[in-house]
TrEMBL record:
It comes from Paractinoplanes deccanensis. It comes from the Bacteria. This is N-acetyltransferase. Pfam families: Acetyltransf_3 (PF13302). Gene3D superfamilies: 3.40.630.30. Residues 19-173 form the N-acetyltransferase domain.
C-alpha cells in the first residue's frame, strides 16, 4: 500500500445524522475480530480466516493509517470504511484511491454503510481535492454493487479474478 497523500490524521471525529466516523481505537478490537471472522461478511471476499488465527494476529490497538475509518453507532463500532492507495491494482485503477467497506451483518439494511461512505468520501474531497476514487467488488455481491451505484461509482470494466466475476467502478474527481 502506498500513502494516501498529505492528509491530517487522525481527523476530528466526523458526525453524520446517525453515525460517528473516527480513527480506530483499542475498544474497537472485538468488533474488528468479529468483522474479520464473520463468514457472512466474507462471502464475496474469498472467505473468512479462522477466528483463533484472527484473535492471535489482531493487535490490542487496531492498526492506524490515514483513510481507515471506524463507523460507530450509539458508541459501538459497526463497520470499517477504507480509503487507501493500493500498490497493485487493475491498470485502469493504478495510482488511484480505492474505497472499501465492511459492516457487521446486524448493521446491514439500514443505510449505515451508505451514510458512512458518503461522509468518508466528503472528507476525502476536502482533504485531497480532485482525486478519482475506484472500487472493486464481485458482481455477485449485490448489496455492494447497489451501494457503489448510490455512491456515484460508474462502471469502468468487468473482469474475472480470484475465481469470481469482478466489477471495477470509478467515482470521478470532485471538488468540495
Ligand atoms: C456491502 C455492505 C457494506 C452493504 O451494506 P448495506 O447495509 O446493504 O448498505 P446500505 O448502507 O447502502 O444500506 C442499504 C439498505 O438499507 C435500507 N435502508 C433502511 N433504512 C435506511 C435509511 N434510513 N437510509 C438509507 N437506506 C436505508 C435501504 O433500503 C437499502 O436496502 P436495499 O439495498 O435492499 O434497497 C454490506 O453488505 C457488507 O458489509 N458486506 C460485507 C463486506 C463486503 O462484501 N464489502 C464489499 C467489499 S468492496
Amino acid at each position: 500500500m502506498t500513502d494516501l497523500g498529505p492528509v491530517a490524521w487522525p481527523p476530528e471525529p466526523i458526525r453524520t445524522e446517525r453515525l460517528v466516523l473516527r480513527a480506530p481505537e483499542s475498544r474497537d478490537r472485538p468488533a474488528f475480530v468479529e468483522l474479520l471472522a464473520s463468514p457472512q461478511v466474507h462471502t464475496y471476499l474469498g472467505g473468512a480466516r479462522p477466528r483463533d488465527q484472527i484473535e492471535r494476529e489482531t493487535p490490542g490497538t487496531p492498526e492506524q493509517w490515514p483513510g481507515s475509518f471506524v463507523a460507530e453507532l450509539d458508541g459501538s463500532m459497526i463497520g470499517h470504511v477504507l480509503l487507501r492507495r493500493p500498490a497493485r491494482h487493475r491498470p485502469a485503477a493504478m495510482g488511484k484511491i480505492d474505497l472499501g467497506y465492511l459492516f457487521l451483518p446486524r448493521a446491514w439494511g439500514h443505510g449505515y454503510a451508505a451514510e458512512a461512505c458518503f461522509a468518508a468520501l466528503d472528507w476525502l474531497d476536502n482533504a485531497l481535492p480532485g482525486e478519482a476514487v475506484v472500487l472493486a467488488t464481485q458482481t455477485a455481491n449485490t448489496a455492494s454493487m447497489r451501494l457503489a451505484g448510490k455512491l456515484g461509482f460508474v462502471e469502468v470494466e468487468r473482469f474475472h479474478a480470484w475465481d469470481a466475476d469482478q466489477w471495477l467502478g470509478l467515482r470521478p474527481p470532485r471538488r468540495p
